[in-house]
Write a structure and sequence with these properties.
Elements lengths: L2 H9 L10 H20 L4 E4 L5 H7 L5 E5 L2 H7 L5 E3 L12 E7 L8 H10 L1 E12 L1 H4 L17 H8 L3 E11 L9 H5 L5 H14 L3 H12 L10 E4 L8 E8 L4
Parallel strand pairs: 1-2, 1-4, 2-3, 4-5
Antiparallel strand pairs: 5-8, 6-7, 6-8
Length: 264
């Protein structure tokens, strides 16, 4: 595949995912994971920081939580306001009082920032003591930045698992550091860079070729062919991802579950 196609795939991570795309399940699965953690708390208001057009707001509010979205993109907030209350805000200087939220969710935000320590401090400030943080960010052990520079031009810094735990540890107790992985029943990932890492064996390369042929078909034919070959739609959905500590060293994405440290 030519290099320009790789760039197009990588940059699609920065766009709002569409339901009929490979990226939808990957993004939505993290919000589904966060929603389950919120349901277990039965707590107060929740901030979705960097909410974009609000698809995550809808998923998080499904469990009855009171959700506020915040983003710097005014056009995106114009769409997100349909899903719930939203505020224009920069993550390094949030317009909320101390302890305003019981939980904060922030997906794929930290890697874009220069002022990352200030961002983490703001997350802690707006949380109640013991408040929950669910945060995701790319895994540098997967993306392999060269001399610390990510290949994605929109990213300032990408973290290895231990480094992420250290960054959050200034203000949080990190309860879990998890890797997001595709279910084992998917023998072929929908992502170009995953496919390039497949073994150079005949069976693995035949699966990749079959996947790419199916991917060029209309959606109904694409999924019918995939179900006939492998027993599932071509693209993983939100329920087709797992979050485990064992996957953290190899996963594309890290998910941290942390609590704001309670001062002695």
């Amino acid at each position: 595949m030519p290099a320009v196609e790789r760039l197009e795939v990588d940059l699609s991570e920065e766009e709002e995912p569409q339901p009929d795309s490979a990226w939808w399940g990957w993004h939505a699965a993290r919000y589904a994971f966060a929603a389950r953690r919120l349901q277990a708390r039965h707590g107060g208001p929740v901030l979705d920081l960097a909410c974009g057009t609000g698809y995550g707001l809808r998923m998080l509010s499904g469990g009855g939580a009171r959700i506020v979205g915040a983003d710097v993109d005014l056009a995106a907030l114009g769409v997100a306001r349909v899903a719930g209350p939203v505020v224009a805000a920069d993550g390094s200087g949030l317009p909320f009082p101390d302890g305003a939220f019981d939980a904060v969710v922030s997906m794929e935000t930290l890697e874009h920032l220069h002022a990352r320590a200030e961002f983490v401090a703001e997350l802690a400030r707006v949380l109640v003591p013991g408040g929950l943080l669910v945060l995701s960010t790319p895994n540098a052990l997967y993306s392999r930045p060269v001399d610390g520079v990510p290949s994605n031009p929109f990213h300032v810094h990408e973290y290895e698992p231990d480094e992420l735990a250290g960054e959050l540890g200034a203000a949080f107790e990190v309860d879990e550091l998890l890797g997001q992985a595709i279910s084992d029943r998917f023998r072929i990932s929908p992502f170009w860079d995953d496919q390039e890492r497949l073994p150079r064996t005949a069976p693995a390369q035949a699966r990749r070729l079959a996947w790419r042929v199916l991917n060029k078909l209309p959606a109904a034919a694409r999924d019918a062919g995939s179900k006939a070959l492998w027993g599932h739609p071509l693209f993983p959905g939100p329920d087709d991802y797992t979050f485990t500590a064992a996957a953290a060293p190899t996963a594309r994405t890290l998910v941290a579950v942390a609590r704001r440290r309670v001062s002695p």
